[in-house]
Amino acid sequence: MPLLNKKVIFQVAFLVIVIILFVIKTCSPAEPVVDIRGTDSVDVYLTQALHTPIDNNVPASPHRILGVSSYETAFPDINDEQLVSAKQHGIKPLQNRKQLEKMARAKLELVYRCPFYSVDYLKNSVPYLVPRAKKLLDVIGRNFTDSLQKKHLPLARLTVTSVLRTIDDVNSLQGSNLNSTPNSCHFYGTTFDISYTRYQHGVSIDGKPQRLVRDDTLKWVLSEVLRDLRQAGTCQVKHERKQGCFHITVK
Questions:
Q1: Which of 61, 112, 129, 218 has the fewest CB atoms within 10 Å of its CB?
Q2: Fold of 67-250
Q3: CA 39, 246, 147, 149 torsion-angle sign
Q4: Which one of 90-94, 109-113, 246-250 scores highest in mean pLDDT?
């Protein structure tokens, strides 16, 4: 066969292949385009975490309990640093509880006892958070429960010890709490405290008390959960030694 004919055949075959591929691409349903403009990566992360069911398949071998090497190093976010996030994502400070009533209906969510955590008796704060912070609290509780199961530890609820404060609340608190500040992150509904010394231990299905776990062990597990969420960029955390809690603000 002459060289010219081979060249023509090759060109025709190549053209036919190109046309076939074009027709296939044109007739195939296009993949939906995801528009991420204006989305919030932290809110998306927390929402996805909440909608991911806890894996009840407990591993045969328990995961190790590691904790963190240093609480001060792992959770160094001081009040002034958390204040930036609080002002960005929270409400305006409220003078008193009466002002809170109107705000609560519009921009806040109630924080109440659930399978993952309980709310302490609140004398100087009220159980409300902005939706973003409420999601973070729910994720912390969910991940804590998941971690306990994977480590073959009895279930325990976290204890929330402080939530939103009004200006009047902070003024009355300053006389008894050395960590209280007139420029508190708790003003904004973005911040909450979780005790690392008090937990509510669960009860087994047959009604018999479960074996007790040392609070130090539960603190190690909680610290792993908070470290992972902080490293994921969802929150800022301060280890409060005198108050026995983790001071947490959503980012």
A1: 61
A2: Muramoyl-pentapeptide Carboxypeptidase; domain 2 (3.30.1380)
A3: negative
A4: 246-250
